Amino acid sequence: MNIITVGIDLAKNVFAAHGVDDNGTPALVKPKVARADLLPLIAQLPPCTIGMSIKGGSIGVIFGLFHFADTLG
C-alpha cells in the first residue's frame, strides 16, 4: 500500500481521514478518528500530501499538527 494523498476533515472531537494510493484507489478509510488518535495515525503514514478541511472549533488541532511537524524536522 503506497498512500500518496490523504484528506482529513478536522472537527472539534471526531475527524475523518481518507487516503488514496498512486492508482487513485482508496488505501486509507477512517470515517471516525478520535482526537487522541489523529497524530499517531499521521505519524505512521508514509511521506505524502495531506490536505485538511477545517471548521471553526478545530483551529487548536491545526496548531498542534504544526507543532508535531516541527518536531519531525
Model description:
This protein has 73 residues and is an alpha+beta fold. The protein has one domain: Nucleotidyltransferase, domain 5, CATH 3.30.420. Helices cover 32% and strands 40% of the residues. The protein contains 2 helices and 4 strands. Strands 3-2-1-4 form a 4-stranded mixed β-sheet. The longest helix is centred in the C-terminal third of the chain and has 14 residues, at 59-72. The chain is globular. The N and C termini lie far apart (25 Å). The mean pLDDT is 82.
Secondary-structure blueprint:
Layout: E1 3-9, E2 14-21, E3 26-34, H1 35-43, E4 49-53, H2 59-72
Parallel strand pairs: 1-4
Antiparallel strand pairs: 1-2, 2-3
Q: Which structural class do you get from the secondary structure elements?
A: alpha+beta
Give a quick account of the main beta sheet: strands, pairing sense, barrel closure.
4 strands, mixed
**Number of DSSP E strands:** 4
H/E element string?
EEEHEH
Using only C-alpha atoms, the radius of gyration works out to 12 Å
Instruction: Tell me, rounded to a whole number, the average pLDDT.
Output: 82
Number of helices: 2
CATH class: Alpha Beta
Provide the CATH architecture: 2-Layer Sandwich
Spatial arrangement of strands, main beta sheet: 3-2-1-4
**Poorly predicted parts:** none
Please report which band the strand proportion falls in: under 5%, 5-15%, 15-25%, 25-35%, 35-45% or over 45%: 35-45%
Helix % is: 25-40%
Terminal CA distance: 25 Å
* Number of structural domains: 1
User: Which fold name is given in CATH as the topology?
Assistant: Nucleotidyltransferase, domain 5
Shape: globular
